[in-house]
Amino acid sequence: MSFFKKLFSNQKNDSKLSQEAKQTLDQGLEKTKTSFFSKLTKAVAGKSKVDDEVLDNLEEVLVSSDVGVNTTLKIIERIEERVSKDKYLGTDELNAILREEIAALLSETNSGEESEFIVPSTTKPYVIMVVGVNGVGKTTTIGKLAHQFKNAGYNVVLGAADTFRAAAIDQLQIWADRVGVSIVKQQMGSDPASVAFDTLQSAVAQNADVVIIDTAGRLHNKVGLMNELSKVKKVMQKVIPDAPHDVLLVLDGSTGQNAFEQAKQFTAATEVSCLAVTKLDGTAKGGVVIGISDQFQIPVKYIGVGEGINDLQVFNKYEFVDSFFK
């Protein structure tokens, strides 16, 4: 049995997406899939055997699909190993081989099989600090995340610690009102750490299950960013010693290689523990999910595959690969 088949045969039934969510994922990855396989078809046109020329063409396809150079080279090396073992590997098998290798890569970083929004039962409140540049869909992701957690039966509190922009506070308030969750905020220009402190105190008083803290979305110099985020974390730990339990970096999938640069900046500035990749439905650059997860060895926890309030999904590597190669 192939590695990929083993992965899928070992899935738990309860880890699968609902039919509606799976359909949304299929549609959200449609542009990426169409672009990728159009390029792949041209790469193997007129060829029956996987040879050096096909591999060179495949390398170009993967790089141009925003998988990233390092991850592309890793995939090519794995396929080269298979070609060396099987002297005649047909191009008609390339689709299945790619599917297996991408699934294997994602499995190295993304161990979770969940498809539902759950929080650790041993951690209350579960504190998420959200980072990312302006314009990537950070506030929208926080709002949708709050909605999903509330729908799952959790008591959610938001903290508006992006005090650099008045619009950031206002946008988070709109989402809090829309979703029906509590929000803690101060005036624009307030100390972000003070907002985070107040938010955690309020969450503890409310017996909240989940706290989501927004932070400034500007990429000023790395030292300044590091100092600000470190201060926010230290102040939160005065209320909850092991907070934050996750530092979630939000990346815009439609920016392709720029998302790699943002990941590089933020992973250098703070200990990012998981990723949310947004706007995958509007782009053919969905390959960034594979590349960023592999290159930075950080699990992708959530993906945005539509504009609807329910279109933020827990990342399930099996379902993602299945939709990508469907």
UniProtKB/TrEMBL annotation:
An example molecular function term from Gene Ontology annotations: GTPase activity
Cellular localisation: Cell membrane; Cytoplasm
Record field: transmembrane: none
CDD domains: FtsY
Pfam families xrefs: SRP54, SRP54_N
EC number: 3.6.5.4
SMART domains: AAA (SM00382), SRP54 (SM00962), SRP54_N (SM00963)
Keywords: Cell membrane, Cytoplasm, GTP-binding, Hydrolase, Membrane, Nucleotide-binding, Receptor
Membrane topology category: Peripheral membrane protein
Keyword Mitochondrion on entry: no
Keyword match Nucleotidyltransferase: no
All residue ranges annotated as the SRP54-type proteins GTP-binding domain in the record: 299-312
UniProt-annotated binding residues for GTP: 132-139, 214-218, 278-281
Catalytic activity: GTP + H2O = GDP + phosphate + H(+)
GO CC field: cytoplasm; plasma membrane
Family affiliation: Belongs to the GTP-binding SRP family. FtsY subfamily.
Quaternary assembly: Part of the signal recognition particle protein translocation system, which is composed of SRP and FtsY.
Matching NCBIfam families: ftsY
Protein name listed in UniProt: Signal recognition particle receptor FtsY
Protein's organism: Flavobacterium croceum DSM 17960
Lineage, highest ranks first: Bacteria, Pseudomonadati, Bacteroidota, Flavobacteriia, Flavobacteriales
Gene that this sequence comes from: ftsY
